[in-house]
Amino acid sequence: MLLDAIRRIHAGEALYAATILTRLVEHYLATSTPTRDAGALGMLTPREGDVLTLIGRGCSNQDIAIELHVSANTVKTHVSNLLAKLQARDRAQLVIAAYDIGLVTARK
Q: Out of 9, 37, 43, 56, which could bridge 104 as a Cys pair, Cβ 3.0 to 4.6 Å?
């Protein structure tokens, strides 16, 4: 199980199932007030903003690569930059940042 998780992370996949991430985000949205920090968005390049939006929508690195017509390695670089710029520990925190900044909203 641990090796599978390591392989998935190395491949750029989410460690958590999309359904779990969706529940985490729904819980976060129900229990907090998003900050809509426009300053954080100003730190990002337009392409990083695109990647963050797609991460917020639950896309995998492969999905993002296909959508943006770039390589999976390019997506990994953007994700690494986003983690550093937004001081996020993991992809789940990037999803939350996408909501906080206002790049994505909850589906109803």
A: 56
Q: How many CB atoms lie within 10 A of CB 106?
A: 11
Secondary structure string (H, E, C) spanning the chain? CHHHHHHHHHCCCCCCCHHHHHHHHHHHHHHCCCCCCHHHHHCCCHHHHHHHHHHHCCCCHHHHHHHHCCCHHHHHHHHHHHHHHCCCCCHHHHHHHHHHHCCCCCCC
Instruction: Using the predicted structure, report yes or no on whether residue 38 has a pLDDT greater than 60.
Output: no
Residue linked to tokens 């129900």 = 30
